[in-house]
Design goal:
single chain, alpha+beta, three-stranded antiparallel sheet, 3 helices, about 15% strand
C-alpha cells in the first residue's frame, strides 16, 4: 500500500512536473522564446538591414551592384536613370514620357553611402520637386520590375543609368545585351 502511494505520488509528481514544466516551459517557451524570437528576429532583422541589403532598402537612394557595375538605386532597390534631353536641371519628361519614366520625388532621402552634396531638387511643371544628381533629374523606368533590372539602359540613346559618383554610364542597350527588350 505504501508502495502504491509512493508510486502514485511519484507519478503525480512526474505528471505535475511535466505539466508544470510543460506549462511553465510551454508558457515560458511560448512567451519568452516568442518574445526572444521576435526580439531575435527583430534584432536580426534590424541587424541585417543595418549591414546588408535591408539597410539599403530603408536608407534612401544608395549604390547597388549591377551588371553595369555600381549604380544608383532608390530605397526599394530600383535603378535610377537620367534623360539626356534634360538640361540645366530642368525635366523635359512629361505626359506619356512620365508614365513610363516616373520622376524620383524630391524628398527621397539619400543613403549614408553617398555624398549628399551631389543631390538636389528641380521643380516640375506641376509644382512638385524631383530629385537630381549633379544637376540631372532622376527617373525610374516602368520596365524595371525588380531590384537589379536595368532595362532602360541606353534606350533610344537618351536614357542612362547613373553610377555612384552621379555620372551617366553611357553603355548602349546593345553593349549590355538589352537591345531585345520589348518596350
Amino acid at each position: 500500500m505504501r508502495r502504491r502511494h509512493t508510486i502514485a505520488a511519484l507519478v503525480i509528481a512526474i505528471v505535475a512536473a511535466a505539466c508544470g514544466d510543460g506549462g511553465s516551459s510551454g508558457t515560458t517557451s511560448a512567451d519568452e522564446p516568442t518574445a526572444t524570437t521576435a526580439g531575435s528576429t527583430a534584432t536580426t532583422a534590424s541587424d541585417e538591414p543595418a549591414s546588408t541589403s535591408g539597410e539599403e532598402m530603408t536608407d534612401g537612394v544608395h549604390v547597388a551592384e549591377s551588371d553595369l557595375g555600381p549604380i544608383l538605386v532608390n530605397p526599394d532597390g530600383l535603378t535610377l536613370y537620367v534623360f539626356t534631353p534634360d538640361t540645366e536641371g530642368v525635366s523635359t519628361c512629361y505626359d506619356d514620357c512620365a508614365a513610363s519614366w516616373p520622376a524620383v520625388p524630391g524628398d527621397t532621402s539619400i543613403g549614408s553611402d553617398l555624398d549628399a552634396a551631389m543631390f538636389g531638387t528641380a521643380s516640375r511643371d506641376d509644382g512638385s520637386e524631383q530629385l537630381t544628381v549633379n544637376g540631372m533629374p532622376l527617373y525610374l523606368f516602368a520596365g524595371d520590375a525588380a531590384p537589379g533590372d536595368t532595362n532602360g539602359q541606353g534606350l533610344n540613346d537618351v536614357w542612362f543609368v547613373v553610377d555612384g559618383s552621379g555620372s551617366m554610364i553611357e553603355a548602349s542597350a546593345d553593349d549590355v545585351g538589352l537591345a531585345d527588350y520589348d518596350y
